[in-house]
Amino acid sequence: EVQVVESGGGVVRPGGSLRLSCAASGFTLDDYAMNWVRQVPGKGLEWVSGMNWNDAGTGHADSVKGRFTISKDSAKNSLFLQMNSLRAEDTALYYCAREAGGSSSKQAFDVWGRGTMVTVSS
Amino acid sequence: SYELTQPPSVSVSPGQTATIPCSGDNLGNKYVCWYQQKPGQSPLLVMYQDTLRPSGIPERFSGSNSGNTATLTIGGTQAVDEADYYCQAWDSRSYVFGTGTKVTVL
Predict the structure, then answer these.
(1) Which of A39, B16, B50, B87 is deepest in the core (most CB within 10 A)?
(2) Which of A95, A108, A114 sits opposite B48 (nearest CB)?
(3) Average pLDDT, rounded, for chain B
(4) What does the pLDDT read at residue A73?
(5) Nearest in space to A22 (alpha carbons), one of A109, A122, A119
(6) By a Cβ cutoff of 8 Å, what residues of chain A touch chain B?
């Protein structure tokens, strides 16, 4: 079964750091572009970070640029999001999502995890 | 930054057609996809590249995109279609989501 499972969320103080993980199964991470999307409970979706399928590059939303870093471990078939200098406004449910189409991206996310909650509070 | 605007809510009677617009500058020049999200669940892809349905998505879902507006249409809406719907497009090295529309089946 194709799936992704996020972990690593929790409660952290403002200015702190957290590392989210996304374990992929049923497919090879290297064959797909992968993304992180977040959602404040009761609010809309916000794209956070993405990584191209062939490690050709990464991208981050302006709201997290310079603070968040996306990476992966191909051997572990896992994606990560290193979050530094966390702010209250980073509080959200963080989803890992696979980009459909592999090397020919469909610019749509066809596999989503259940998310991991990050709460930034003093 | 690029913005995608959706109406906050759409109401539809069972069996009728629900139309959900998504507006953005020159949106017709971009690929648009749509997600359905029910309470407590992760988003589900229901349309991609404007008009294509993923496997398993009912034929009553259809899409279009032209000019500044993309549209998701649900023909013969059922109670099970009640959910939040989000459009999404790629612009200038980032993905952008629409503001979301809550579809209520009355």
Answers:
(1) B87
(2) A108
(3) 97
(4) 94
(5) A109
(6) 35, 37, 44-47, 50, 59, 61-62, 95, 97, 100, 106-110, 112-115
